[in-house]
Design a protein that fits this description.
heterodimer, A: 114 residues, mainly beta, seven-stranded mixed beta sheet, four-stranded antiparallel beta sheet, 11 strands, globular, B: 112 residues, 12 strands
Chain lengths: 114, 112
């Protein structure tokens, strides 16, 4: 099976702009989670989608939003970008939401906000 | 609030030796899951091992094993016969319900 793919892999934006990141889960997986990884904060959970519904959300401002399509592909949007949004954004998929299900991570999208 | 603490930002081990990475967590939940993930440099994060809190037996995956102490809320990872390919950032993670919490990671260097 093909792994989790994320596009684009690298992105440079300026403050105030918005950005949309895409994640395609492993075929058959219906759960997609998003994480922000920074050197100072480590990995922080953004949100999880399952069957097009947001199951849970981490402690991030409303500028961070997401959605999931019927084919389980997911997008994450960040509006009004701030310098502090520079990070590696990871997407992970699993067959089910919650529980001990293994999450399979994508390579990430590295976002730089200037 | 649930938190995951990895008190060792960096560790090193000689090739073929054994190393133990520490992880503690704070929770009021009784039903949860614990994971160790590995993130090699510039490579994707992969699951190393996982443990269900209700299981008393420590999980083992080949050279990787855990020491799960539920009362102490401790979940350490032991890597035996360390190999050069084990060099990576290791993250301890805790999951309850639909929330996932990660530690800040331990960077493991393997010395030839």
């Amino acid at each position: 099976k093909a792994g989790v793919t994320q596009t684009p892999r690298y992105l440079i934006k300026t403050r105030g702009q918005q950005v949309t990141l895409s994640c395609s889960p492993i075929s058959g997986h219906r759960s997609v989670s998003w994480y922000q990884q920074t050197p100072g904060q480590g990995l922080q959970f953004l949100f999880e989608y399952f069957s097009e519904t947001q199951r849970n959300k981490g402690n991030f401002p409303g500028r961070f939003s997401g959605r999931q399509f019927s084919n389980s592909r997911s997008e994450m949007n960040v509006s009004t970008l701030e310098l502090g949004d520079s990070a590696l954004y990871l997407c992970a998929s699993s067959s089910l939401a919650g529980g001990p299900e293994t999450q399979y991570f994508g390579p990430g999208t590295r976002l730089l906000v200037l | 609030a649930q938190t995951v603490t990895q008190s060792q930002p960096e560790m090193s081990v000689q090739e073929a030796e054994t190393v133990t990475l520490s992880c503690t967590y704070d929770t009021s939940e009784s039903d949860y899951y614990l994971f160790w993930y590995k993130q090699p440099p510039s490579r994707q994060m992969i699951l190393v091992i996982r443990q269900e809190a209700y299981k008393q037996q420590n999980a083992t995956e080949n050279r990787f094993s855990v020491n799960f102490q539920k009362a102490a809320k401790s979940f350490s990872l032991k890597i035996s016969d360390s190999q050069l390919g084990d060099a990576a950032m290791y993250f301890c993670a805790y999951r309850t319900g639909n929330q996932f919490y990660f530690g800040t990671g331990t960077s493991l260097t393997v010395i030839p």
